## 1
Amino acid sequence: MEWEFDKVSFSREFSRNVVTKLLVDRAEHGGWELDRVRITADGTRRVVLRRKIIRAVRTA
């Protein structure tokens, strides 16, 4: 199974509720799921999203 990854950063000015809404929107409309969240010492949220890569198989 292959995955496509996307890294997103959110400033500390964004509240948890705002970040949640933005991530839910990406999940619902783009097929992304949460892989990892890291909160740095300065309060920045670094988020890694992933989604499956579906390869089409040719039929003869």
## 2
Amino acid sequence: MTGALAIKREINHYVIRNILANVGLSTYVLIDTLFIAIAAGSLGLTVLNLALPLYNIFNATGLLLGVGGATYFSLHKVKEPARVQTTYSQLMIFAFGLGVVEIGLIWLFLDPLLHLLGADSQTLGLGRTYVGIMAFSAPLYMCNYITINFVRNDGNPSLTMMATLTETVCVVLIDWFFIFKLGLQMEGAALAVIFSPLCSLLVLSRHARFKHRQLTWRWVKPQLATLKAAARLGLAPFMNEMSSGVSIYVFNWMLLLLAGNYAVAAYGVVANVAIITLAAANGVALGVQPIASREFGKHAPQNAVTAFWHGLKLTVTLAALLTLGLIIFKAPIVALFNTEHQPQLLHYALTGLPIYFTSAVFAAANILMIIFLTAVNRGQVSFTLSFLRGYVILLPLIVLLAWLGGVNGVFAAMPVNELLITLIGAGMVRNELRRLTA
């Protein structure tokens, strides 16, 4: 078997498991959204979408420490294992403490926070209930992201897939039980959020029995140097995830100003359905990352380049197929979430979905480029691309296109942004590939 063929097969092995895991988790998000639509209607969907930036903060912090720390771990575990022996433990302890602080801050400033997120007299009561409970998931989400990335980079992608799929099945059942059997509605949906990362962490604890593992647990004090090393390599995925939260926040406010709560609910439906394509793209990128990092660390740059090109073919093809299917079946998909048969929600969602989804292929390529640049220790270049994608170009586009095209202009901001980033990113990655193969 040639080196290139072996790399491709190994990537396929990682990618399949990561896609199943990520799509499994996105399936839970979709089902949770559907349950909320049934239990609390359009305003419940609005509250869910207003709260999404908080999830992005939890997830982004987990990615900052998880992807960055795991990449640092992969780069040094072969030649300098002692250097990264306590990295995982330090990051987990720090993340849990940070999560507890976030719980306190959310509870202290709950009403001002909800108003900042866009809640009004119609949604404030539901928002207090939902956000007040889901705040307790903060440390669990961060620790889960860290553990998933370290276990994957410790050579056990099958367990990460099993953890996420088990989490999905268990949490869907818990969600259903709380909302429908106990009649807890938004309270039940928020409680299920806490169980989501907890189920995953319980399964991931089986990694302790993995005979080839290098990960160990130590009760240690987090060191600033370790946090800096992880943050440097994890800054790009952190900015990428935070950009989702910031863009959702700006999308929400522009739609509230243009058309009110039902436009936000429609955007929530579209954005949650879009999670499927983004989950698949992240699955491919996170499948490429450990291979590219390992080969780069072994001074085999050509293999890292092979990993990138193979990942690019996979992610673009998959995104195109998913986009086509979702656009073809947009009417039944939207109808599924429009449980109150609200005509405004139906109109905005049916119009916005095909516009928004033209971004999927470009977004998939961009996610891969950002993660690959991090994997080959080009954190600064990766950060630049992430910053352009999530802030510098996207945010002005949302405002500009909202002014030019109203609600449809808001939905069009995403594909225009992703296309521009693909063009810029292609130039950046081409330079890095030339450097690696020189």
